[in-house]
Specification:
With 172 residues, this protein is mostly beta strands. It has two domains: 4-91, Elongation Factor Tu (Ef-tu), domain 3 (Beta Barrel), CATH 2.40.30; 102-164, PRC-barrel domain (SH3 type barrels). Helices cover 7% and strands 44% of the residues. The chain has helices spanning 29-32, 74-77, 102-105, and strands at residues 4-14, 19-24, 38-42, 50-60, 63-68, 84-88, 109-111, 117-125, 132-137, 142-146, 152-156, 161-164.
Length: 172
């Protein structure tokens, strides 16, 4: 059975030439939305996905705008609203050492060198120079862990564990 990974959600149309507005959930928008790439649209209450080929991509005000081959008219894409764009696991590419897909990191348990667990990674923020991992700590407190080699010492995606060496003030 094929495993699927979210790329983004179509939230609206844009203009009259078939452009759709996407809130992106992918780590690699430049790769996923490259013209000629295949995406699969899962619509609410539909039993099978619609295979789409990216014709054009651009960004506008924090959205990714896409046009799909054969759907260059607003009337053809209005029904795509609220659909989720996905790719099959077979389309995931191998990453460099110390690079991970978001789905591999979210859900990992974070430990200190002492063996104490501080929490579980619930989301990943991408504010700029480096990613920031949001850890839900004991009592629901959120701890922000910068993904830098000085802090994150070891990641084991098979065991779903992360070992960190916190900088001064990181956990207080």
């Amino acid at each position: 059975m094929e495993k699927w990974f979210n790329v983004g959600k179509i939230v609206n149309t844009h203009g009259i030439k078939g452009e759709v507005r996407v809130i992106s959930k992918t780590d690699f928008p430049e790769e996923r939305y490259k013209p000629g790439n295949q995406l699969y649209l899962f619509l609410p209450n539909a039993s099978t996905p619609i295979e789409l080929t990216v014709k054009q991509h651009r960004t506008h005000k924090n959205f990714d705008l896409l046009i799909f081959e054969g759907y260059e008219n607003i009337n053809l894409v209005e029904k795509f609203r609220d659909g989720i764009l996905k790719v099959p696991e077979s389309q995931l590419t191998d990453l460099e050492e110390d690079e991970f897909y978001f789905h591999e990191i979210i859900g990992c348990h974070v430990f200190l060198p002492s063996g104490e667990e501080i929490g579980k990674i619930s989301e990943i923020l991408t504010p700029g120079a480096n990613d920031v991992w949001v850890v839900k700590g004991k009592g629901g407190k959120e701890i922000l862990i910068p993904y830098i080699k000085e802090v994150v010492k070891e990641v084991n995606v098979q065991e779903k564990t992360v070992l960190i060496e916190p900088m001064e003030g990181l956990l207080s």
